[in-house]
Write a structure and sequence with these properties.
single chain, alpha/beta, about 40% helix, globular, binds NADP nicotinamide-adenine-dinucleotide phosphate, binds D-gluconic acid
Length: about 270
Amino acid sequence: MNMNDFRLDGKVALVTGASYGIGFNIAKGFAAAGATIVFNDIKQELVDKGIAAYKAEGINAHGYVCDVTDEDAVNEMVAKIEKEVGVIDILVNNAGIIKRIPMIEMTAAQFRQVIDVDLNAPFIVAKAVLPGMIKKGHGKIINICSMMSELGRETVSAYAAAKGGLKMLTRNICSEYGEFNIQCNGIGPGYIATPQTAPLRERQADGSRHPFDSFICAKTPAGRWLEPEELAGPAVFLASDASNAVNGHILYVDGGILAYIGKQPK
Ligand code: NAP
Ligand code: GCO
């Protein structure tokens, strides 16, 4: 094995929804491994902020405004990227939303909105980049799954349905395109300190910790929330030639949550 197998030099990587959060940190890891970074966000102001944030890290990222649920907009963006930057070698379907609403209070429209961003969009974007990967004779697709690809919890029915579906979409892309030297895997982050989970970590009015914050720390062997930077290494591995024999796998980067019954309350 050659350590260069872990490098991404000469590769074009598209990370969706990567102005900040997990996507931004995965893209930073890709850049450190030599990849050219392309990202999108839904609003120009966020793309501009993202470009500035990448620049501050010494990364000349290419940013595009695109709502990943809009198939025409996605096809247009991919065509522009292929013309302006190059054919996409690595796709990370990272863009995602969550709505924490008890199922009987959630409207069908709200349920559909989460499915649209977290499941339909990864299908749309993967479908747009696959032809280029087939032509090139290689490709890496990484879908950002979740603990909720395996577990349920109150108020996240739409999100769990989407992330469970994303696990199976990952396995199906693996099955359908493995013969073209395209590997499709998932990353299942545990509980990561990003804007998406900020409401679960907010201090209470009396200054005490959010109950969910204490709960997650008791469910994680290391007793802490994970940092978005901690996803970069696993993502680089799955984006590199070092993982060419890994396909259809969901790599849980969860600090051991799925292996642990949880700390006994004192
Ligand atoms: P985040 O901080 O909420 O960032 C999500 C990103 O996706 C934002 O840049 C957002 O842009 C973008 N986005 C949302 N809808 C979009 C759309 N329709 N088109 C284009 N971009 C869109 O979330 P995060 O914590 O970094 O999570 C990133 C991914 O990891 C998500 O798929 C999430 O489900 C998954 N995940 C997160 C955790 C965690 O603990 N944080 C754990 C497991 C999995 P806007 O700001 O413009 O909306
Ligand atoms: C929640 C959290 C989780 C995380 C992540 C866990 O409300 O339980 O937002 O869903 O985002 O998906 O892996």
